[in-house]
């Protein structure tokens, strides 16, 4: 069965990468949560998608130019809706404490393709290991060098190569850099690709899938997982589809 992974939490309904978005995703019966990991100026891993602070906080600068204490003073909720005013940035450790007792998979995208966060892989790995969550954690990144770095950790078995670019040797290339799965933009989704990946034991996960048409297509192709901002919609469509198959 195709897994439903809440993209930055239930980010259609609450500020992305916030505890509120994660809690909503859990209530909406998502199978897992996808979030983004970057380092602050003082090397604390936090959950934040953009390298720039402009869109979410309305200020200039990049995430790695501010300390955690600086970032905790900023409000990441009011730009989404006044109901979420006062929402603060979440550290990776805070997230791990929250998710630890829940039957959810963790999908951590390492945001190192634009900022070369030194030791991001090692710092993230150490925290995951410390909280004994390696077995349910899936790593992904757009960075080829980061994929290779992750592959160097023997205990990491789930490494997804993120891509939005078409190439004929997509599966072979992903394997050559150490990835064990491909995470593709929905525009690259082809049934032939999914079948070929299945034949080679390579999971195909698709981002970001929100429309009923695309969700139905992903479920019909039996992709491994979909990343969606609307886990409630995805759950309802999957439930209806599988009920039809069982009748």
Report on this structure:
The chain is of the alpha/beta class and 247 residues long. It has ten helices and ten strands. It has helices at 19-27, 54-57, 68-72, 92-99, 120-130, 144-151, 170-176, 191-199, 212-221, 231-246, and strands spanning 3-7, 32-39, 45-47, 90-91, 105-110, 137-141, 159-163, 181-185, 204-207, 225-228. Strand 6, helix 6 and strand 7 form a beta-alpha-beta unit. The radius of gyration is 18 Å and the shape is globular. The model has no long low-confidence stretch (mean pLDDT 96).
- Low-confidence stretches are none
- Calculate Rg over CA atoms: 18 Å
Tell how many strands the DSSP assignment holds.
10
Number of domains: 1
- Strand order in the sheet with the most strands: 1-2-5-6-7-8-9-10
CATH fold-level name: TIM Barrel
Share of helix among residues? 25-40%
The major beta sheet can be summarized as: 8 strands, parallel, barrel
Please give the alpha-carbon distance between the first and last residues.
16 Å
